[in-house]
Amino acid sequence: MLKPLKNQPLYQIVVHEVINQIKSGNWEPGAKVPGEEELCRTFEVSRNSVREGLKSLQILGVIESRAGAGTKISEDALRKIHNTELINLISDGSSIIELMELRMIIEPQLAFLASKRANEKDKERLRDFIHNIENKDAEEEQVKEKGFDFHMLIAEIAQNKFAVKLLTSLTEELSIQRDFLIYNQVNLQDNSKEHIHICEAILNRNPENARDLMYNHIEQAIEFIKKNI
């Protein structure tokens, strides 16, 4: 049951309540959003406030509007909502450190599993990654993107679907954080070398070495962040 909300900027009434309806399961992905007139009555706000709220939700990717089909809840609305909440959570330095510490717990073990589970196709992907990252003509932005792709690749080779989903959901937000906190100052060449060494450990079926190298890789990133936030 929708409830009118008080004491908030008017357009946020629409944003917050729509998000609550989706998170509670009352509005499922693909469901049609009520019309402006109904939303105006429910939230007790003006049509302009409804439009601003819907516009904000569309920018966030929570809803989508198509000609002839009306406005609907996006298929990945929950992921978009969780991403938005996450970026608010990690917007301060201490939370970023905690997030990186969580990665230090998870990703070394993913490297360990990847080294044990990598098949020939996976090994070819690793070799391709090494070749691409060693490309001297690559633009700096491409190197940054490859750096993030590296962590996704390891999770996929480790064959852990939950880890893949977790890292996928964080891709956009972590990319922004990495650009600001790490790549603006860190030595990209050294960072790439660490990625290559981890790949080589996986290719050589050395899970302990792969795990230790990944741990050290993330630990160094944490130390860098502590010094620069």
UniProtKB/TrEMBL annotation:
Show the SUPFAM superfamilies listed in the entry.
GntR ligand-binding domain-like (SSF48008), Winged helix' DNA-binding domain (SSF46785)
- What residue stretch is flagged as signal peptide? none
Q: Which residues form a coiled coil?
A: none
Q: Which UniProt keywords apply?
A: DNA-binding, Transcription, Transcription regulation
Q: InterPro entries attached here? A: GntR_C, TF_FadR/GntR_C, Tscrpt_reg_HTH_GntR, WH-like_DNA-bd_sf, WH_DNA-bd_sf
Q: From which domain of life does this come?
A: Bacteria
Name all HTH gntR-type domain ranges: 8-76
Q: What is this protein called?
A: FadR/GntR family transcriptional regulator
> Which organism is the protein's source?
Pontibacillus salicampi
- Organism taxonomic ancestry: Bacteria, Bacillati, Bacillota, Bacilli, Bacillales
